[in-house]
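Researcher: Here's the sequence for the chain we discussed earlier.
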Amino acid sequence: MRSTRFDIIVVGAGIAGLTSALSLQRDGARVAVLDRHRSGTEASWAGGGILCPLYAWRYPQPVLALAADGMRRYPDLLASLDSNIDPEHWVTGMEILDPVGEGESIESISVTLASAGIAHQWRPQGKHDGDALWLSEVANVRNPYLLDALVDTLIARGIELREQCAADKVLLSEGHVSGVSTSEGDLHADRVVITAGAWSEALIPGLPAGSLFPVRGQMLRLEPRSENGLDRILMENGVYLIPRRDGSVVVGSTVEYAGFDKTVDAEAQARLHTHACRLWPQLAGARITHRWAGLRPGSSDEIPLLGEHPSIAGLWVNTGGFRNGLAMAPATAELLAHRMAGRPTSMDPAPYRLERLIES
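Model: Thanks. This is the structure I predict for it:
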């Protein structure tokens, strides 16, 4: 019979939950991870796998700080995995053809990127107005492969993974968390971490409605016939092209506020495809092999929630990464682990605290 008591229960087996569990176990905790479906099959699976924010300078500084730290931590995370699955980490660089928006300048963008430690260059464009922005150190991963490798690592290290185990609510006792009520019965722990992405809000008592919400993103994958393959991430007008090692190209992504609807819309897909073919003409005539949509966890102030509940001891949260959850994951996991262990942190945790949204 499986145990029903743990030191820490992590609710949600996406990129935030899997990396958090690994970081927490390193401190000696007995950790269990729950997911209502199969591990890594929601937003973490559906994204493109770019390990850098898109138009990074347009995000709040706390988001950029986490994402930049996550970028730097990825090589060590990948090297530590106990799995035969290759996540296909590939430093391709990213070229942005329309970097300067209204009210922005090359100088202001450079200052922001430099402050985050993100290497960048400006390149003249032959047939476009203005300079393109080249981010030479940007990498991408095949995110479904990364998630499978993380699951392998959890299992290899003895972390209990319970799939098809839906969390209904957090159990409380005298102002302290005591576990989680699930579809398999009550599971007990003195600490619970909510990493359930767009579904997190219902599991965080006292969080105002609309603090966390799903944001749909549609994508497609093509197999070009040309041997002259795309060798970098290419981006313009919010549409990006991501090369894969097998020669395929992933195209994304829409930003749609459609609730928990993952419908793939023909009109939106056509817009993505048309823009992709303009960006990289070799895609014209390429076979579309997959179309899909995922639900990112947005937050009301665009900043992730990472910290302990202000009035429920032992209830922790790591969610709200929106489009940057994958890029930030190694950083958010380490920040969470340090805070839960009471250790000093290299990054100021204040901007991510739940107190900004929940009154104690």
